[in-house]
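A note on notation is needed here, since sequence and fold are reported together in a single record. The reader may check this reading against the record printed directly beneath this paragraph.
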Amino acid sequence: MAIYQKVVSGLIFSCALLAMGKPVFALPNEFICAAAETIACAQDEPCVRGSANSVNLPLIWRVALKDKSVVSIREGGEQRTSEILKTIEGEDALVLYGFDQGAAWTAIISTSDGKMTMTSSTYDAGYIVHGGCSSKILK
C-alpha cells in the first residue's frame, strides 16, 4: 500500500506542476523532480512509452546543487545517489550532466515554470523523461 501511495503522490505532484500556469521554480539549492511520462528505446527494438516504472526508471529525483548530487527514488523505494558532474545556468534554464553505472544523463529544467526533460543513454538504449521540478514541497 505504501508503494502505491508514493506512486500516486508522485504522479499527482507531476501533473500539478505541469498544470500550474505560474512559476513554481526558482534556482534553489535543493529541489524535487518527478516523472510524468517516459519513453525508452533500445537498439533494434520498438520504443516503449509509459510510466517511469514501466521502463525501469526512477519516479522521483531529489537534487542537491550544493552537494552536486541527485538521489533517484524508484517506485519500490530503492534509492541511488548520482554525482552531478557539471551544472550550467542559462538565461531561462538549468542544465545538469552526470554519468552513473554506464549511463550518461542530462536534465534541463525551466527556471520559469519548473518543466523538466531528462535524457539518459547507454551504448544500446536511450531514455527520455518529461516531468516537473519544485522546491516548494521541501522543508
